[in-house]
């Protein structure tokens, strides 16, 4: 365990790109950097263990299967799930959320409704929009208040006995707003609705217990938490599993298929394998397991505290600097207790892409645009997009100072 926040500085040597490139990386909400330990784990799989899983009795296949199953167990412990069979591997948060939407949404009717929020990433919005047009159910959208927090009163008013699903982000990928999932869970339980949570931004940054949160489904991606791309997780609470039918089928998910009397009968494997058709991303799973071990060694309480410290420092510097304070618009809650370490901002009368390009000239990597959250940008009156600086364990206050100084120069030259 890391005892002091300042000890995080020493981990920067674990990230090869920070050794080989002159870059200040503030784009971890898009994808995180990868430590040597994760890169080595993926390489070792390909060099030493390459074989398909759950397909053969030969030694290599058995070894690969053990690594793959061990990865499920590492993730189970990381999110405090009760059973290994609650952890399904997917290609990422987008596939996980689509998987849930189609499993639940295709059974809904015009009298039913699904509740989402205006903060949703398109991955947790567009599947429900599409399915609402197919099945005719009503899609209800909860707004945010002027302090950028979810409007819980409006949520309560929109949920009724016809609400079958509440699908909501845990942390906004634009505002950093943290949603009180426990409160949402209580609202969902009162009407016996499923609760689906997009944890893509929260799981890498704060301690997560799916049991404590009271969710039915939770989705997140490996690549945002130091792991490889192309690997994600869908948590499926054991008590809801029997009501679900796999929307994607093929090899690797059935115990038997029989053709008798002109009819096919299918017996699916137990969870989680029935939701993992085809050859999975074995190397990605191995890399994700190593990323989980890395974060657990640091301690997620420490990861959260370090992120809050960086966030507090950055917001203070941006909002108190005499030169840029009147020129910068910062979006998101001021209350750090309900905000993650994401900072979306704009410079007055400046295009966010221009600002991001200027920062890039100083080797400062930020994201600009609408961040796959167009309706939210409409709501906050930033239709041209925002500049987003997202922080993580390998960032430092000195890097924040460098960004502030670059923004000062931008303001002096162009505003």
Give your account of this protein's structure.
The chain is of the alpha/beta class and 415 residues long. It folds into two domains: 38-296, 3-Layer(aba) Sandwich (Aspartate Aminotransferase, domain 2), CATH 3.40.640; 299-414, Aspartate Aminotransferase, domain 1 (Alpha-Beta Complex), CATH 3.90.1150.10. It contains 13 helices and 15 strands. The strands form four sheets. Strands 2-8-7-6-5-3-4 form a seven-stranded mixed β-sheet, sandwiched between helices. A four-stranded antiparallel β-sheet has the order 11-12-15-14, covered by helices on one side. Helix 3 (59-79) packs across helix 9. The relative contact order is 0.16. The model has no long low-confidence stretch (mean pLDDT 96).
What brief labels describe this structure?
single chain, 415 residues, alpha/beta, Aspartate Aminotransferase, domain 2, Aspartate Aminotransferase, domain 1, 2 domains, 7-stranded mixed β-sheet, 4-stranded antiparallel β-sheet, 13 helices, 15 strands, 37% helix
């Amino acid at each position: 365990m890391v005892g002091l926040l300042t000890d995080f500085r020493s981990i920067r040597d674990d990230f090869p790109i920070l050794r080989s490139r002159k870059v200040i990386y503030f784009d971890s909400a898009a994808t995180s950097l990868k430590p040597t330990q994760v890169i080595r784990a993926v390489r070792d799989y390909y060099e030493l263990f390459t074989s398909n899983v759950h397909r053969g009795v030969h030694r290599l296949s058995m070894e690969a299967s053990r690594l793959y199953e061990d990865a499920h167990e590492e993730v189970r412990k990381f999110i405090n799930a009760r059973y290994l069979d609650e952890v399904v591997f997917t290609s990422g948060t987008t596939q996980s959320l689509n998987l849930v939407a189609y499993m639940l949404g295709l059974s809904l009717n015009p009298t039913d409704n699904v509740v989402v929020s205006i903060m949703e990433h398109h991955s947790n919005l567009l599947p429900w929009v599409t399915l609402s047009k197919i099945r005719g159910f009503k899609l209800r959208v909860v707004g945010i208040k002027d302090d950028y927090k979810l409007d819980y009163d409006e949520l309560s008013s929109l949920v009724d006995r016809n609400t079958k699903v509440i699908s909501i982000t845990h942390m906004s990928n634009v505002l950093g707003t943290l949603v009180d999932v426990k409160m949402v869970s209580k609202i969902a339980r009162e009407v016996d609705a499923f609760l689906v949570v997009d944890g893509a931004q929260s799981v890498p940054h704060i301690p997560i217990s799916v049991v404590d949160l009271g969710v039915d489904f939770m989705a997140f991606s490996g690549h945002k938490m130091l792991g490889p791309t192309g690997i994600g997780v869908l948590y499926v609470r054991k008590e809801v599993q029997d009501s679900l039918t796999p929307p994607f089928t093929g090899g690797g998910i059935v115990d038997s298929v029989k053709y008798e009397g002109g009819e096919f009968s299918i017996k699916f494997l137990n969870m989680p394998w029935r939701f993992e058709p085809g050859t999975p991303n074995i190397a990605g799973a191995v890399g994700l397991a190593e990323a989980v071990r890395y974060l657990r060694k640091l301690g997620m309480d420490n990861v959260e505290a370090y992120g809050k410290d960086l966030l507090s420092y950055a917001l203070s510097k941006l909002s108190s600097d005499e030169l840029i304070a009147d020129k910068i618009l910062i979006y998101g809650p001021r209350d750090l207790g309900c905000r993650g370490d994401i900072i979306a901002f704009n410079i007055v009368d400046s295009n966010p892409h221009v600002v991001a390009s200027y920062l890039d000239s100083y080797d400062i990597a930020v994201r600009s645009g609408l961040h796959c959250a167009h309706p939210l940008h409409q709501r906050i009156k930033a239709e041209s997009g925002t500049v987003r600086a997202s922080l993580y364990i390998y960032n430092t206050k000195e890097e924040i100072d460098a960004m502030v100084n670059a923004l000062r120069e931008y303001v002096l030259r162009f505003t």
